[in-house]
From TrEMBL:
One of its GO terms (biological process) is threonine biosynthetic process. Its cofactor is pyridoxal 5'-phosphate. GO terms for molecular function: threonine synthase activity. Its EC number is 4.2.3.1. Keywords: Lyase, Pyridoxal phosphate. GO terms for cellular component: cytoplasm. The modification N6-(pyridoxal phosphate)lysine is found at K107. This is Threonine synthase. InterPro entries: Thr_synth_N, Thr_synth_N_sf, Thr_synthase-like, TrpB-like_PALP, TrpB-like_PALP_sf. Residues 2-71 form the Threonine synthase N-terminal domain. Residues 99-410 form the Tryptophan synthase beta chain-like PALP domain. Belongs to the threonine synthase family. Pfam families: PALP (PF00291), Thr_synth_N (PF14821).
């Protein structure tokens, strides 16, 4: 069963939690119990088998066969490697490459599976409805969600992205998805404004009723949906098993994890994996110049009223990090009263402070650091020159923060970085970093081929031929016009 972080709804089954996406009155679903397991029992599992075993622990109520069907995505050719999450060694640490899926970002690890979980949840609940999936994106979630839900019967998906706030490649990827059930909206605002607008729609009782009258329900493909987080827990187990198989760590010895963080979903999955008994040491939360989380870990105050920066790692350009609510709920001893007051204050006043005990608990569980753009570009260059390996700007944030951590702490523990995007997704930045400013003028499409020519790395198949593909129409609007758009587009009355 699943509880609300704000204690404002009865315990729900996994089908209900996944179908709803978030608690309608505000709040996020968390598992009532976190199962403890012995990682060794999975030593001989394929990735798909591991995913099945882990996900089973959390959604036993889904119709028989759902998970078996869902995990086939990891072995049916849609990932361009037979191992969907290879761990490669780079400069003494482990790079967990999570971008071998169809859209070349780690979001595929979960968003290829979520459509199976969501449609099965609707079926389990006996609902004869169509699901209208609303998704805010800072770039990568949008494409991965569109791709995952494209032509899935019983679903329609609308993606909202910040106009001008995503890369040319990301935008092109989104508008070339095709499929009869996908819609793309460019919002005149930043990611936080998109996400806040979408959350508001979820909590509008009036819209919910109108939707129901049209035999539809809302759900979410953002990591506020538990169905997004669950498949992400799997790859931390996989990383550990791979580290043992590669002889980089002894069985039961802890490894550290570094995650380039935006909405806090990826690192939260690492936290849950650790709670499940996986031998993880330090969890390191790496941010770009939008360093709201680093400041929180320093001072105990979460302050979203601050300058917003567009950086070379757009998927981390986030000031309201949704899943942080789940983390604070957990480390405060599952105090729904406190969690609720913090996050209500965040939405009304733009900030909140936690008590010293909670801050201590946060720091016991996680370390936070950040880097500026210079650090990102230098790191991409250095790693390319020293290790002949290409980092995308998000992964470079993680690498820089980790290098700083290792230098300051002297911690020699084997460390795994989650590599969240193919460098080709951000080819202009990567090319500029490794080959200098003369490439700054190079357009986004030319950058792809130049980067490939220069390095000998292949352009991922999902990014090939993008420029020529037919584009669908994008609707452009203000954040406050989203509701009217949805009503016009999807509701008859
Ligand atoms: C989404 C994304 C992130 C941030 O992940 P969160 O789960 O939102 O913290 C980092 N890097 C890339 C490339 C992403 O697409």
């Amino acid at each position: 069963m699943y509880l609300s972080t704000r204690g404002n709804i009865d315990a729900q089954t996994s089908a209900q939690a996944i179908a709803l996406g978030m608690v309608p009155q505000g709040g996020l679903f968390v598992p009532q119990e976190i199962p403890c397991v012995d990682w060794k029992q999975y030593a001989n599992c394929s990735y798909a088998e591991l995913a099945l075993q882990i996900m089973k622990l959390y959604c036993g109520d889904l119709p028989a066969g759902t998970l078996e069907e869902a995990v086939k995505v990891y072995g049916d050719g849609r990932f361009d490697t037979s191992n969907p999450a290879p761990l490669v060694e780079v400069g003494g640490c482990g790079m967990l490459e999570l971008w071998h899926g169809p859209t070349a970002a780690f979001k595929d690890m979960a968003l290829q599976v979520l459509p199976y979980l969501l449609t099965a949840s609707i079926k389990e609940l006996g609902l004869d409805v169509e699901v209208l999936i609303l998704t805010a994106t800072s770039g990568d979630t949008g494409k991965a969600a569109l791709d995952g839900f494209k032509d899935v019967p019983g679903t329609r998906i609308v993606v909202f992205y910040p106009d001008g706030g995503v890369s040319a490649v990301q935008e092109r990827q989104m508008v070339t998805t095709g499929g009869g059930n996908t819609f793309v909206v460019a919002v005149n605002g930043n990611f936080d404004e998109c996400q806040t607008a979408v959350k508001k729609i979820f909590s509008s009782e009036e819209l919910r009723q109108k939707l129901n009258a049209n035999h539809m329900v809302f759900s979410s493909a953002n990591s506020i949906n538990w169905g997004r987080l669950l498949p992400q827990i799997v790859y931390y187990f996989w990383a550990y098993l791979e580290a043992v198989r590669l002889g980089r760590t002894a069985a039961e010895e802890k490894i550290n994890i570094v995650v380039p963080t935006g909405n806090f979903g990826n690192i939260l999955a690492a936290y849950y994996a650790k709670r499940m008994g996986l031998p993880l040491g330090k969890l390191i939360c790496a941010s770009n110049k939008n360093n709201v989380l680093t400041d929180f870990f320093t001072a105990g105050t979460y302050e979203s009223n601050r300058p917003f920066y567009l950086t070379s790692s757009p998927s981390m350009d986030i000031l309201i990090s949704s899943n942080f609510e789940r983390f604070l709920f957990e480390v405060s001893g599952r105090d729904a009263g406190k969690t609720s007051s913090w996050f209500q204050r965040l939405s009304s006043e733009g900030k909140f402070s936690v008590d010293p005990d909670t801050l201590t608990a946060c720091r016991e569980n996680m370390i936070a650091g950040w880097t500026d753009e210079e650090g990102v570009f230098e790191t991409i260059k250095k790693v390319y020159e020293e290790d002949n390996y290409l980092l995308d700007p998000h992964t470079a944030v993680a690498m820089k923060v980790y290098n700083d951590y290792r230098e300051n702490s002297g911690d020699k523990t084997f460390t795994v970085l989650t590599s969240t995007a193919s460098p080709f997704k951000f080819a202009q930045s990567v090319l500029t970093a490794i080959a200098g400013d003369s490439y700054r003028e190079c357009g986004p499409w030319e950058a792809l081929t130049r980067l490939s020519a220069l390095t000998g790395w292949d352009i991922p198949s999902g990014l090939q031929g993008l420029r020529e593909k037919p584009a669908q129409k994008v609707y452009r609007c203000q954040p406050e016009e989203i509701t009217a758009y949805l009503e016009r587009k999807f509701l008859k009355d």
